[in-house]
Amino acid sequence: MFNLKNTIVMRKKSLFMVVAGIVLAMANSPTTSAQEAVSVATSLTSTLPITGVSESTDGNYNFKNFEVKVSEAGSYYTEFWLLPSKYSNNCYTTFLVYVNEDYIGSITPMSGNWQSARVNGNETLEFEEGVNVVTIATRAPEFPEVETLKAALNDSEATFSSNAYEEYLDEVSFGTSYDIPEEDGISLYAANAASVGIVHYTNVPLNYTFYKTFSFTQGQQIFISSSSYATHKIDVIYYGSEPSNIFIPNLPNEAGGAGLLPNRTTSSIPDLGEPETAIPNIKVHRIYTPATSEEMQGLGWVYPSEKTINSSIQVATARLSIPKTGQYLVRVRHAQNGNAAFADVNVNGVYYYENVPITLSLVNCEIPADGNNYATMTCCNNFGKDDPYLFIHGAHCDKIVGFNDDSPRAKTEQYNLSSLDSYISQTYFMTTSGISVNNYSSLNPQSRCNILARVSEESAKSIAKSRAKATDTAGVSIPLIMDESVNITGPDNINGFISISANEKIQRVSLYNLAGYYIGSVNGGDSCIVISTSMLNITQPGIYVVNVETTNGMTSKKVAVK
Which of 24, 109, 208, 309 is 20–30 Å from 385 (CA)? Predict the structure, then answer.
C-alpha cells in the first residue's frame, strides 16, 4: 500500500497566522487563474508568462482564453496540456486554436486522458509584442479542458513533462491511501468563539480527482454514469451563468486595435469527429458569471455508487433535468476518505473518459446555519504553485453547498493568500458536515495544503487590531515595552526554535514583520516555552518582532532569522 507521506516532503505550518491575517509573500497576479507576469525580456530559457485566463461561450461553442505576455514579437514553440473526450464514434475532441484574430489550426489527439499536444503542423505560433490572446474552442456542451500552455523560444522549454501525472496514475493503480489530519485546534478569536470558534487543518492531502465542465440548457435531460471497483460519488454542481449582455470586442480592422477574441476565417474546416458545419464565429462571446451563494447551495446534486449484481463493479448514475441554463461542474470522487482509484465516466452517452483518477481528501467540519457569514480558505504549502480546489459539504445529504478554485483578489490581499488559493464566504442554509480539497492541476497532481474554516466577520476584524500592534518602520517606530523579567532567545536559523522564559505565566506569543503585518501566534500556558519557527509561520529569513503577553503586560523584541 502506498503512503503519500513517505514521498512528499512536507513542512508543517501553523494556521493561527490566518486568524489574524495570513502573511506570506504578496500575490500580485492580474487574475486569479494566472501567476504573476515578470516584466523582463524573454530569454531562450524562459517561458512566456500567462497573465490571465477566462472562459466564455457564443451558445454553440465554448472557449478558454489565455492571455500571454510577450516582450518581443516572434515565433514561439507552444504546447498545450489538455484532456480530450472520447466520442461515441471512437474519435477524440478536436481543439480549435486561435491567436489574436487568426485561426491557427486544430489539435486532434489520438488517445484519451491528460496529455501534451501541439497544433497540427504548427510547432510554433506567431506572437506580437504585448499581450496576446490564445483561444481554444470546442463545440458545446463540452468546454475545452486545457489546463495550461507553455510558449518559449526554445523547443525544450515549451515541452511538458508527463512524468508526475504518469507516476500518479501508477500509484492510483495500486490503490493509493493516505492519512487525513484531524483539526489542529480551535482559535478563540471569533466573537462567538465559545460556540463556534475557528478551526484549522494542516497538511491536508491535495490530489487530483476527475472533474469536467459542460454547458447545459434549461430542460435538457442529462445522464451521467461512472464505474469503478471502488465506491464513489458523482457531484453535479451549477457553476455559472451566461450573462444576458453580449460583449463584442474590437476587431483588428476596427478602431481600438486587436480584440479579445479572434474573428471567423475562411480556413478549412477541421474534422471534429462529429458533424460540423463551420469554424465558430467568436467575434461575439459572453463571459461566464460565477454562481451565487444561493445557487451553489441550491443547485447541487450528489449520486452515490451501488454495487452491480453478480459483480464487484460499483456504478453511479446521475439523471437530471437541468433547472437553469449555464455551466455545470461534474466531479467524480472516491467515497472512502483518504483513498484513490480509477473510474470510467460517461456523460450523455457522448463523452467518455477512461481510467481517470478519483480520490477524496475530506476533513470533518461543522459550520452552523445561524444567519452569520463564515469564510473558509486554503493556504498553499507551495506558494504560487499549488492550486487547491475547495468544496463545502452539506450535512446529511453530503451534497456540495459551496466551492471555489481561485480566491477573489481582494481576499488574497486581505489574508495574504496565494492567487491560486481558494476562498469561500457564505451564510449557510444548512449546517455543513465537512470540507474537501482536490488539486486543480493534473500536471502536478500531488501536494498538500492547509485549511482554515469558520472565520466570522468579527474574527476578520481582529486582523486590523492585530496589525495595529506594530507599525511600519519607515514611519513610526515600533513601540517596545521592555521587561527584563522576560527573556527571548533564538532562533539560530529558519528551522530553529524560539525560547521564551518569564517570571509570570506566558499567555500568548505573536509574531510580526517589520512592516507591522501579523504573521502568526501561539498560546502560552507556562512561564517557560519553546516554539518552533514553523509554528509561527516563519518561512523566510529576515528580522521579526516577537510580542510576548504575560499576566504582567507585554514585552516585544526583534529577532533575526538567518
Answer: 109
- Residues 379 and 421 sit within 8 Å (Cβ to Cβ): yes
Whether pLDDT at 198 is above 50:
yes
Q: Which three cell numbers stand for residue 284?
A: 461575439
The mean pLDDT value of the chain amounts to 79
Q: Please say whether the beta carbons of 174 and 1 come within 8 A.
A: yes
Domain membership of residue 223 as a residue range: 211-243+288-359
- Tell me how many helices (H) and strands (E) the chain has: 5, 36
Asked whether residue 425 falls in the same domain as residue 340, the answer is no
Lowest mean pLDDT: which of 155-164, 197-206, 258-267, 553-562? 258-267
**Bridge partner list, 430:** none
Of 139, 136, 145, 75, residue with least CA distance to 113: 145
Residue count of the chain, please give it.
Answer: 562
In this prediction the pTM is 0.71
Q: How far apart are CA 390 and CA 402, in angstroms?
A: 8
CA distance readout (Å), 332 to 116, 175, 304, 456, 548: 23, 16, 10, 31, 48
For residues 419 and 401, is the Cβ–Cβ distance under 8 A?
no
Whether residues 449 and 340 fall in one domain: no
Q: Exposure string (b/e) for 157-176, b if CB count within 10 Å is 16 or more? A: bbebebebbeebbebbeeeb
